[in-house]
Amino acid sequence: MLHLVHPTPGAHADSPAHERAGIEAIRLAALEQYEILDTAPEPAFDRITALAADLFSTPVAILGFIGAEQVFFKSRHGLAATQADRGDDPAVPVMMSWLRAEFTNGFHASVPLHDPDGYELGTLCVIDRRSRQIDEQQMRRLRALGSVVTDLLAMRLAARRALTQAKITSSEVDHRAMNSLQFVASLLQLQSQVSASPDVTQQLRAAANRVLSVARVHRTFSTQEAAGRVPIAAHLRTLCEELSTSVGSEIRLEGADEVDVPKEQVLPIGLIVNELATNARKHAGDPITITFHRLAEGAYELCVLDEGPGLPAGFDVTATGGPGLGMKVVNALVAQLQGKLTAHPNPVGRGSCFKVIFPVA
User: Fold this and answer.
1) What's the CA gap between 108 and 101, in Å, rounded?
2) Half-sphere exposure at residue 217, Cβ-oriented, CA atoms within 13 angstroms
3) pLDDT per 10-residue tile (average), the chain, 361 residues
4) Is residue 83 within a helix (H) or strand (E), and if so which, with residue range?
5) d(CA 274, CA 257)
6) C-alpha to C-alpha distance for 35 and 30, rounded to whole angstroms
7) Cβ of 283: how many Cβ atoms within 10 Å?
8) 276 within 8 A of 342, measured Cβ to Cβ
9) Would you state the pLDDT for residue 6?
């Protein structure tokens, strides 16, 4: 039986037990950062074990990673087992006892897999149930396949670290963007206080509120961690709570379907709710109700309802003329969703209902 062994840095059979324990803890920490233990099979690693078995004409090939108590088989070719108990004797390869028990009088050849600091992460081995010999050229091939494995691990780790850094950078950008929006809103509020014209003062305050609404929606949106989609009911619930506090009015979410919507739709949805709810607070007072449903025909329905005096005679929700900047903003946001905006009397009583229907992206 042939077995190729490279010792772990600093780990020797005659080292004191506490020294070996310390080195083992460092080795396990080095392995843990790759997040490879107890993970599902992956085609890239399965191709390596299949190639190793083919090159050596052996029925079995294993790619294992050495945990605290077991060797986890990330990939195995020609074998049903998924792990093996590891030995405790530092002078004996970790899989030796298991190999002797499972493949009596057989053959195996293996190469260790090391991280850049030299700590042994695992092993790549080929196994036969009969005794045989291999030459140095074959061992070079097995070592080359082992290097492919460690290269794959290095690339996975680099990609994970890059993603983590990207998330940190994105969070910092979001934070700075929200701070900048709040700063602009503060400047507009200050300017409104020194204006001599009531109309200008009103317009500046309205502009400040719109900037704050963008910051509010952006903050709620940016806290969602779903990959590509956001649970809309939770998002709208948080938005309504913050908006209620901001405008000093009762804005409630009722009967919202628990569905996930694409992130690119969340921002315009939130801004539409903000604009329509703010308008309802101005013209109708409390309470204001928000609903959100998924329709059977593959569309979403968003409604903002109030219990005020109702829509004025001749009101046109799509009119582009007149001084109503708020409705122009809403229409632009609805167009961004490729939807349709309509206005009707509140179906459950007095007041009005603004409804947006837009397709599921």
Assistant:
1) 13
2) 21
3) 42 64 88 92 94 94 93 94 83 81 86 92 92 88 94 90 76 68 74 77 74 67 60 86 79 85 84 86 83 88 89 76 69 90 87 91 74
4) strand 83-85
5) 19
6) 10
7) 14
8) no
9) 41
In the block, which residue shows the tokens 């317009």? Answer: 203
**Whole-number pLDDT of residue 2:** 38
Helical ranges in 254-303 per DSSP H: 263-283
For position 8, what pLDDT does the model report?
43
Adjacent-strand bridge partners of 344: 353
Report d(CA 90, CA 113) in Å as an integer.
16
Residue whose C-alpha is closest to residue 285's, from 351, 204, 237, 345: 351
Q: What is the pLDDT of residue 80?
A: 93
The reply to whether omega before 312 is within 30° of 0 (cis) is no
With a CB cutoff of 8 Å and minimum separation 6, the contacts of 129 are 59, 103, 106, 107
Cα 349 from chain centroid? 43
Crossing angle between the packed helical segments 263-283 and 232-247, to the nearest 10 degrees:
30
Q: Could you list the beta-strand ranges (E) of 275-351.
A: 288-295, 299-306, 340-345
Contacting residues for 89 by C-beta, under 8 A, at least 6 apart: 13
* Three-class SS state of 116: coil
Q: Please give the helix or strand (H or E) that residue 331 lies within, else none.
A: helix 325-336
In 3D space, the residue among 277, 258, 257 whose CA is nearest the CA of residue 330 turns out to be: 277
Pairing type for strands 229-231 and 120-128 reads unpaired
The amino acid that residue 243 corresponds to is L
pLDDT of residue 337: 92
Pair of tokens at residue 221: 């949106």
How many angstroms separate the CA atoms of 213 and 220, rounded? Answer: 11
Instruction: List the alpha helices (DSSP H) in 57-125.
Output: 96-102
pLDDT of residue 47: 95
Q: Do 270 and 233 contact (CB within 8 A), yes or no?
A: no
Q: Does the reported pTM lie above 0.85?
A: no
Non-local (6+) Cβ contacts of 122 within 8 A are: 31, 63, 64, 65, 66, 71, 74, 112, 113, 149
Residue 57: is it exposed, middle or buried by C-beta count within 10 angstroms (0-12/13-18/19+)?
exposed
CB 172 within 8 A of CB 164: no
d(CA 180, CA 182): 5
